[in-house]
Amino acid sequence: MTTKVGILVMSYGTPESLEDVEAYYTHIRRGNPPSPEQLKELVDRYEAIVGGVFPLRQNTDHQVEELQAALDEASRNQDVEFICYQGLKHAYPFIEDGVEQMARDGIKQGIGIVLAPHYSVMSVGSYIKRAQAKAEEAGVSMEFIESYHLHPKLIEALSDRVNAKLDLFIEAGAKRDDVRVLFSAHSLPERILAMGDPYVDQLMETSRAVAEKSGVTNWQFTWQSAGRTSEPWLGPDVLDTMHKLSEEEQVKYVLVAPVGFVSDHLEVLYDLDIEAQAVAGELDMRLQRIDSLNSDPLYMETLSDTIITLWKQQH
Ligand code: FEC
Predict the structure, then answer these.
(1) 190 touches 232 (CB < 8 A)
(2) By C-alpha distance, which of 139, 103, 146 is closest to 123?
(3) So what's the pLDDT on residue 233?
(4) Where is Fe-coproporphyrin III bound in this sequence (predicted)?
(5) Could you report the predicted ipTM of this complex, rounded to two decimals?
(6) How far is the CA of 239 from the centre of ligand 1 (A)?
(7) Segments in 29-142 forming alpha helices (H)
């Protein structure tokens, strides 16, 4: 008999329209509505990137479809069927909706995975906590994947992207070693450091592995997209790093590799492609960004391998 296993594929979520930005932002702020100024600032950022479309929604939908196809392929002729359900952190369908749908479909066992490779108690940990609570209530037995930041196919996909953009610099006349590669990820409040959180170490491990695989020695790590709250966030921020590189080391070529993200969305398309690109212009610096993974087959295989490995360990 074939066992049906629900795969809860979790992602950050994005509004469906500009009218939904307020509800989305209020959800991120745990029910506290933003001030009119804060709301306008966020709407302006979405308007700058999207022109009416929210790319993260489409990208997540596509990633879930492609992951389903990869799992179907990998489990062909086996006695297990993996069925993907989407669960978003801050938008419909919410994490809880995905778990509820599994239960309604008669699924008794599930595996949860987040479309973010690195674990922090404040990021992946909070997705898992919500999914676990709902699963207990709905009577679904769930296991979770916490991270997959060193999966060889993930490292290969990221290294290929680094090399592709380094080639563009070379075509434009730069020497490969003159390009400073900046690996980056979403900043988090500094208080995670006191909690022994693995987030920083995992990001450094991914960065080191990608640098090694692509033969890059001229690199460093920096943070981006810190939240607009009063507490201190992990730094240095990418914009400060760029200023420092220009002023203290006269660096002219920068390739930013946001290894903490897997999709085109606001934090990449605005924070890097618009905001950091504007700073690069002021500093007379040439800035490129690696392409996002989106539904790259190697990323899809990273996810499906990780899920199947966990399933096999349990059965
Ligand atoms: O394209 C889109 O519509 C969504 C882009 C988006 C992604 C994303 C990923 C992460 N976040 C993480 C942590 C935080 C913390 C806070 C926070 C706030 C925001 C706001 C927006 C936003 N985040 Fe986000 N994040 C995205 C978007 N994020 C918009 C609210 C305005 C602002 O501060 O800029 C602070 C919450 C609070 O007030 O307490 C913390 C982390 C990730 C990467 C892992 C993941 O994808 O889950 C960590 C994509």
Answers:
(1) yes
(2) 146
(3) 98
(4) 12, 29, 45-46, 127
(5) 0.94
(6) 18
(7) 36-50, 55-74, 95-104, 124-138
